[in-house]
Amino acid sequence: MEKVANIGHVLVLEDEPFISLDMEEMLRELGATDVTVFDMRLDALAWLATNRPDVAIVDPRLNDGLCTDVVEALAAASVPFAVYSGADVDEDVFFKGGWLTKPTMPETLKETLQDLLA
């Protein structure tokens, strides 16, 4: 598959291990130089205090709750993100990013990342 330009470092927030492994593999195939995965919003917030990814893929519901605060931190830092979910979310902050429906195909992920990084 063709690589995505400027993909760089990707933050993935996902609480299902098999889904996060699949996402990481797809991202690496698309050219991600580094992928950081968290299943807890508090861990992601702590990491974001000293790190900045190039883009993020976010499941809104993690093991320790709704990650509204993480998405707000991403938006405040101008980090493009896509919400990756099979369920609806009502909080407005999630609509500041792109949307990927679970499960997603590699081509759809590629198109979404290209849009986010354009």
Model description:
The chain has a 5-stranded parallel β-sheet with strand order 2-1-3-6-7, with helices on both faces. It contains 4 helices and 7 strands, in the order E-H-E-H-E-E-E-H-E-E-H. It has one domain (9-117): Rossmann fold (3-Layer(aba) Sandwich). It has 118 residues and is an alpha/beta fold. The mean pLDDT is 94. It is globular. Helix 2 packs parallel to helix 3 (68-76).
Write the layout of secondary structure elements.
Layout: E1 9-13, H1 17-29, E2 34-38, H2 41-48, E3 55-58, E4 61-62, E5 65-66, H3 68-76, E6 81-85, E7 98-101, H4 106-117
Parallel strand pairs: 1-2, 1-3, 3-6, 6-7
Antiparallel strand pairs: 4-5
Helix pairs in contact: 2-3
Spatial order of strands in the largest sheet:
2-1-3-6-7
The level of helicity is: 25-40%
Average predicted local confidence, pLDDT: 94
Which shape, going by the Cα principal axes? Answer: globular
Could you tell me the number of beta strands? Answer: 7
What is the gyration radius calculated from CA atoms?
13 Å
CATH homologous superfamily title: Response regulator
Derived structural class: alpha/beta
CATH architecture: 3-Layer(aba) Sandwich
Q: Strand-residue fraction? A: 15-25%
Summarize the structure.
This protein is of the alpha/beta class.
Structural descriptors:
single chain; 118 residues; alpha/beta; Rossmann fold; five-stranded parallel sheet; 7 strands; 23% strand
